[in-house]
Amino acid sequence: MAKIGKLLFLFLLMLGFEQVKAQDVDVSATLNETIVFQGDRVVLTVTVGGKRFKNVSNPELPELNGLRYLTTTPSTSTNFSFVNGVAKSTYSYSYYLLTEKEGDYFVPEVKVEIDGKVYKTSPLKITVKGRTQAQDNTQNTPDIYLKLEVSNDKPFVGEQVVAKVVLYFKNNLEILSYQPVAGWKAEGFWKEELRDGKQPQAESAIINGMRYRKAELMKYALFPSKTGKLTISPFTVVTTVRVASRNRDPFSSFFGGFGTNQRNIDLETEPLEIEAQAVPRVKDATYLGAVGSFTVKRAITQNNALVGESIEVTTTVSGTGNIALVSKPTYEYPNTFEIYDPQETSSIDRKGDVVSGSKNFTDILIPRTPGNYEIPEMNVSYFNPQKKRHEVVKLPAIAMVIKRDPKATQLTSQVIPFNVQPALGLVVWTSKIPDEFYNEWWFFVILGFPLIGAVGLYFYRGYLDRMEDDVQFARSNKASKKADKRLIEAKKVAQTDVKAAYSALYKALVGYVADRAHVPETGESDEMYIKILHEKGLEEESLKPLKQLMDKCSTIRFAPAGTAADFEKDADLASDLLKKIRRVL
Fold it and tell me: Is 267 buried (19+), middle (13-18) or exposed (0-12) by CB count in 10 A?
């Protein structure tokens, strides 16, 4: 039995080795063009790559329909690489095909035998167009143009529309560079730029019977903010082009190279009209203004609290869609609770084709009387444009038990003596006869004033010298005035630019902490500043609203601007927090 077990183990080990070995081989086939004209040549390339193989046979070519091989002898190339101690070999076999008939065809799977095992590629689709229409349109089609393409021309209000800025150009042109012109405004839309970090890639396209190359330059997410017909204004791009070189890929020298036929061209898209539909009304629910696919949750920091303790109720909306435009639900809180201005934070991901993320709304409550309370259940809704209906989410009721603080009760029950005795009898008014002037206190003050002035000037001179020589000392002493100045500037800016005002407000808070704590004002995280204040003894009930205000100031540029009235409340909160920070720093 033991011998059989060893043999079985060796067999499984060899089988696993062969599987790993097979996984090290990759066989694929590609076409340099997938949309071509009748009579054009295309290149079929079969690539074999991997870490472990010895013998590779020539590919076994399949029968073709609508195409034919110009030659069955491949053009071959070999590449060896050695990365991180691992050697890899790549073999390429290229065949020229001629398109014979108009229509849609497939290049069947290609078989390649490697070390005695047969591998197959995936079939490839190719579309062959007739040349009649191309000849008729040769004189009427531009060599290069810019187009704005949208994913939906009849969206709902708040629904995401993907707008792509696409460049079309013929093969005789080479694109050297492009530069979008700043200042594009999409009136009537909330605009977000989508970025995936990839360089533009050119691919084939047949437009009105003519072959073009197309490349997606920019991509935006547009959210209609009102109903009716909305016009997307033209988008302008400055391109540098020249007559293409022998290399057929116009993007081979995408950002370099110069030629005698080089020139700059200003390209502009045509205005595009979109008709935004109204979101239907919803019954028995509060609409959050969210359009997309979301989850909505409500949570509380503590269900059992003492009178005077802070309680936070946080509503989280997360998913894909117009996350930046989601509005806060309004809850029914007990009348005996003190309600502070809500705090708002958001996290938005703009990668890919869909805007996603989350948004948090935090209400801060302070109970003032003991008892059993409840935040009633509530139905909220968001609109799902795919299903064209509202999705209703029920937020369960939240029960709270508020108790009186026993320490506070003990303090208020203590007897505080009031040792004041009434004055009895007649009141007699007396007039003091002035003494000689040299017996008065002010005589000695005047007499010693020169000495006091000299000592004061000496210390003041030392203070000025230190302000000039000691940078940290100067920062610490000027911190308060600088913070007050920034607060005043923030209130002035709020009348015209609320987002810039929040930026100034953030600098006032962070700058004061940085100057007093002798740390850099920029390049540090908000958590570091909060940690400094916590270590200096700033109470927790001040740290939480400070952290929330700093988060709001940092993320306000990704959210709707808000109003000057909202900023005024946050500015008052910042002023109050600065007073408390000054006590500990």
Answer: buried
Domain ranges of the chain: 25-130, 139-276, 289-408, 460-584
353-to-41, 120, 213 alpha-carbon distances in Å: 34, 33, 22
Distance set, CA 367 to CA 135, 302, 329, 341 (Å):
81, 12, 21, 15
Fold equal for 289-408 and 460-584: no
Specify the CATH number of the domain 460-584.
1.20.120
Task: List the structure tokens of 485.
Answer: 């100045």
573-577: Cβ within 8 A, 24+ apart: 573/341, 573/545, 573/549, 574/487, 574/505, 574/508, 574/509, 574/549, 575/487, 577/509, 577/542, 577/545, 577/546, 577/549
Region 289-408: CATH code: 2.60.40.740
d(CA 111, CA 46): 10
Name the one residue in this structure whose structure tokens are 């909306």: 317
Per CATH, the architecture of 25-130 is what?
Sandwich (2.60)
Q: What is the pLDDT of residues 432-442, one digit of tens each?
A: 555 565 566 67
Tell me: the pLDDT tens digits for 207-263? 877 788 899 998 999 999 999 999 999 999 999 888 755 444 444 444 444 445 788
The number of residues making up the chain comes to: 585
